[in-house]
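Work Package 3 (structural annotation) set out to generate three-dimensional models for the target panel prioritized at the project kickoff. During this period the team completed the workflow that converts sequence records into C-alpha cells, so that structures can be stored uniformly alongside our sequence database. As a representative example, we reproduce one entry of 327 residues exactly as it appears in the project archive.
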Amino acid sequence: MKMIFGVLGVAVLACVASCSRADSGVAGQRPQAVYTAGVIQLADNGAFTDMRNGFIDKMRELGYGEDRLKIDYRNAQGDTGNLAAICQEMANAKYDVVVPVVTPATQAFVNLDSGIPVVFISVTDPVAAGIMSSLERPDKNATGTSNLVPVDEIFKVAAALTPGVRKFGILYNTGESNAVTTVRKAKEYLAANGYSFVESTVANSSEVQQAAEILISGVDAIYVPIDSMVQSAMPQVAQIAKEAKKPVYGSSPVMVVSGALATVSVSDRQCGALAAEMADKYLRGTPIADIPAIMLTDFRTVINRNTAAVLGLSIPESLSSAVFIGN
C-alpha cells in the first residue's frame, strides 16, 4: 500500500495510518488509500488502446477515481529495448499493481520476478507464454484475461463469405508466442478440413509489406493471427490484398477497421474491463493466486462492408447478424 500525504509530522502520520487500518472494517481488505498502477502498452494500435481504455474506464467506474488510483501509462512504441527499459523502471518503482497489455509486455515484466502483482490484459495463451502454470491457480504473481480466438469460427466465416478460397497464406511474426499459438491451431484446422496453406514470417514491422506482396500472388486469401506487429501494418496488407482482389481474414476488430475483410473475435474493451474487475478484487484483499485467469468466450463476427464491396462480395443471410463496419 502506498499513501500520499502532505507535509505532516511523524506523529500525525502514525495516527493517520493507525486510523485508516482501524476504519477498514473488513478482514483481509486493504484500507482506503491512493494506489499506483503501471500500465504498459507494447505499441500504438487501436486494439491495444481499446484494451487500455477498457481497463481505465472500468477502474474509474468501480470507484478508483484519480484521488484513489494514480495510473502511470507507458508505451514502448513497438521497440523491445524500450519495453525492457519500461518494465525495469516499473519494477524499481514498486507499483501496487502492474497492468501489461498483451503477451510480449506481460512476459517482459513477469520475467523480472519483481514481486509486484500483475494483472495482464489479453494474453492469448498464458500457460504457453510461461506466465502461469495453470489458468485456475496463478503461480507467478500474475493473472488476467485471455483472448484466445476460435480460429475454426474464423475459417467458417471465410467459407461463407468466400467459398472459392482453398489456399491460405498465413502472415505472422514468429517472435510473438500468441501468434505462434494461433497459427498452430489454424494449421491444424486447415489441414483437417481440406485446405492448403503457406506461411510467411516476419521479424520486424518493416518486413510486413514486402512479405504480403510476395505472399498474395500464390494464395487465395491471407490469414493474420493475433499478432501485434502485423496488426500495426494491416492498412498496407489490406491494400495489397484489395489490389489483388483477394480477402484478408484477421483476428481482431481493429484489423477489420484497418481494411481486413472479416474476423471472429472478442471485445478488446471487454478484455480490459474484466482485467479491471480482477485488479479491484486484488486491491480489496484477494491474493493474486486466488484470482483465476479469465478466457473470454463472448465472440462476435465483424465484417468490413467497404472491403466486401471492393472484392465484389455479397453478404450471405447466415452472416446478417454480424457487426458491420463501413457503409
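The chain is about 40% helix and 20% strand.
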